[in-house]
Specification:
single chain; 311 residues; alpha/beta; Arc Repressor Mutant, subunit A; D-Maltodextrin-Binding Protein, domain 2; 3 domains; 10-stranded mixed β-sheet; globular
């Protein structure tokens, strides 16, 4: 890409990520006509249409989606370069962006963040707790710096990402202490007699529901589906519900009066790890975070060590 066209990529990113020329122009402190001229210049330089304009805003074309993926990578790599130079000068660093599943957010990240903060006092991070859907692609595109949670290894390889799978995490069925199934033994079919609560961002519910169906020949009843883990757990704790939780979340569950059932008829576990772009290890703060996550993941109660980093 010609240098003068590369300079237009930040404006392209603003439009693509807001979906609106108006909002992007405000974000970039430009008039809308001025921003439109920059985009026409970019489209003419590439000889391709990047946006489809309509009354609701703009939509990326196939070429626009390709450019968005590459532009995010350019932005991320530029940020890494600036961070390394700032560290070399003893200056501040920009924020690391990562998304993680509940086990990592609750059981691993706090210690890892503390370790990095101790070495780099000005370190900061933007953390989102979420499920695994779309997160590998977000790392590959530069939208986030790393993902920690359930991994699609084949997808990591497809995008040439480094992936580390240090854990196999066991899942258990939890319920309030006075729940009818808090007993030594019960027929598996009773799992279908009570409503279930699910944390929708986790992604484990479909697998658990399938296991219940294959074990009992009946469908599990999903009563509550929440985008908030704490909300899901609190709801489960205040009703005659069942909820599937990763074993490392047991201390948090106990604070909410949720206990694992004494009898666990489902045998369910998943591999959990992290993935990042190879260039991430060139940034000292991010490299230390990756190292710390791997170290503290090995100390998680209710998780079993699995393997080492591969790329």
């Amino acid at each position: 890409m010609k240098p003068h066209l590369s300079a237009l990529l930040p404006y392209f990113l603003s439009i693509a990520e807001t979906g609106s020329l108006t909002r992007a122009a405000k974000e970039r402190a430009l008039t809308q006509p001025a921003l439109s001229r920059k985009m026409r210049q970019l489209e003419e330089g590439l000889n391709v249409q990047l946006f489809i304009r309509h009354t609701r805003g703009v939509e990326l074309t196939a070429a626009g989606r390709i450019l968005l993926r590459r532009a995010r990578l350019i932005e991320a790599e530029s940020r890494y370069a600036i961070d390394e130079i700032e560290l070399l000068k003893g200056g501040a660093t920009t924020s690391v962006r990562l998304t993680a599943g509940p086990v990592w957010c609750m059981s691993v990240l706090p210690q890892a963040i503390a370790a990095v903060k101790a070495a780099y006092p000005q370190f900061s991070a933007e953390i989102e707790m979420s499920g695994g859907v779309g997160q590998v692609e977000a790392v590959a595109s530069g939208e986030i710096d790393m993902w920690a949670g359930a991994l699609d290894v084949n997808l990591c390889r497809q995008f040439d990402l480094v992936h580390v799978e240090p854990l196999t995490v066991d899942y258990q069925i939890f319920a309030p202490a006075d729940h009818p199934l808090q007993c030594a033994h019960f027929p598996p079919a009773r799992l279908t007699e009570h409503g279930w609560v699910s944390y929708s961002q986790d992604g484990a519910w479909p697998a658990m529901a399938d296991l219940v169906g294959r074990l009992t020949g009946r469908n599990a009843q999903l009563a509550i589906n929440s985008t908030s883990l704490m909300s899901a757990m609190r709801i489960a704790a205040h009703g005659s519900y069942l909820i599937g939780l990763a074993h490392p979340l047991r201390p948090l569950a106990a604070l909410l009066n949720l206990q694992p059932l004494p009898h666990q008829p489902l045998n369910f576990s998943f591999r959990s790890g992290m993935c990042y772009r190879p260039s991430a290890v060139g940034l000292p703060t991010l490299a230390l975070l990756i190292e710390s996550l791997g170290h503290f993941a090995g100390e998680v109660t209710g998780a079993r060590p699995l393997s080492k980093a591969v790329s």
